[in-house]
């Protein structure tokens, strides 16, 4: 059922048809982009589960069997992400390998990654954020180095990605937030660190973990509203002034008094 739901929304992006959904737009936008780049024309109706795709090119949006194409590819990335995270935390190769094998043979993870769903996209950003956070922590002995800035910034990018797919991404935001508070508290208690240097640490985290994710999250919505410029099933959720900007709407280009 979810595949018909999100696959249809991918088609809406390709056809630039406006719609409304409870989830943020990034996941559906990426599904539509994957379909567009792989030659899907957005004409499949996605009416009910089990409908045959026939001649429609759906391969880019949905990984079939072992084809790691977009959702399947992102799902397969969870294995190296988990491996690297556990290896960084435990410094134990057997523990990291065990973690990777557990995910490789996990039926639920394999199943979720086969279909046009938001879950593999969400899990990609969730685990990416955790891996980036752990890698950034490992660079604590060389703050403000290129690698430190890279992992800190990548953590912010992954936070924006997780929140941009589903609001349950808030949980990884809380995790990174608690880790950041712990780091800053530890730095504040370091008597060899000047207040100026502590201020630099604080501002770096504000920039990479608050400003950057918010900017990217806002940019996702800007792209969403720029692409979906044609009248569709989501018109009625918005004001008359907004509907007047949608091509094909009865109010298109009509002057709406404030």
From TrEMBL:
The keyword Transferase applies. The keyword Nucleotide-binding does not apply. Coiled coil: none annotated. One of its GO terms (biological process) is protein O-linked glycosylation. It is a multi-pass membrane protein. Belongs to the glycosyltransferase 39 family. Pathway: Protein modification; protein glycosylation. It comes from Elachura formosa. GO terms for cellular component: endomembrane system; membrane. This is Protein O-mannosyl-transferase 2. Residues 1-229 form the ArnT-like N-terminal domain. It is found in: Endomembrane system. The chain crosses the membrane at residues 66-86, 92-109, 149-182, 202-227. Keywords: Glycosyltransferase, Membrane, Transferase, Transmembrane, Transmembrane helix. It holds the Pfam family PMT. GO terms for molecular function: mannosyltransferase activity.
């Amino acid at each position: 059922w979810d595949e018909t739901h999100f696959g249809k929304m991918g088609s809406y992006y390709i056809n630039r048809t406006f719609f409304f959904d409870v989830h943020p737009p990034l996941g559906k936008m990426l599904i539509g982009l994957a379909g567009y780049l792989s030659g899907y024309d957005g004409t499949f109706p996605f009416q009910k589960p089990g409908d045959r795709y026939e001649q429609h090119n759906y391969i880019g949006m949905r990984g079939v069997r072992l084809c790691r194409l977009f959702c399947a590819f992102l799902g397969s990335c969870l294995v190296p992400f988990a491996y690297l995270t556990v290896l960084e935390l435990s410094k134990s190769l057997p523990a990291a390998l065990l973690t990777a094998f557990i995910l490789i043979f996990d039926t639920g993870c394999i199943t979720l990654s086969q279909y046009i769903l938001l879950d593999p996209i969400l899990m990609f950003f969730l685990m990416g954020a955790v891996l980036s956070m752990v890698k950034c922590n490992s660079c604590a002995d060389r703050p403000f180095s290129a690698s430190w800035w890279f992992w800190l910034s990548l953590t912010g990018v992954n936070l924006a990605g997780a929140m941009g797919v589903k609001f349950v991404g808030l949980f990884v935001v809380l995790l990174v937030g608690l880790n950041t508070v712990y780091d800053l508290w530890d730095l504040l208690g370091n008597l060899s660190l000047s207040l100026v240097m502590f201020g630099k640490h604080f501002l770096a985290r504000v920039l990479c973990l608050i400003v950057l994710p918010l900017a990217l999250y806002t940019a996702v919505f800007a792209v969403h509203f720029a692409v979906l410029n044609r009248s569709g099933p989501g018109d009625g959720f918005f004001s008359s002034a907004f509907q007047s900007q949608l091509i094909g709407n009865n109010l298109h280009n009509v002057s709406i008094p404030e």
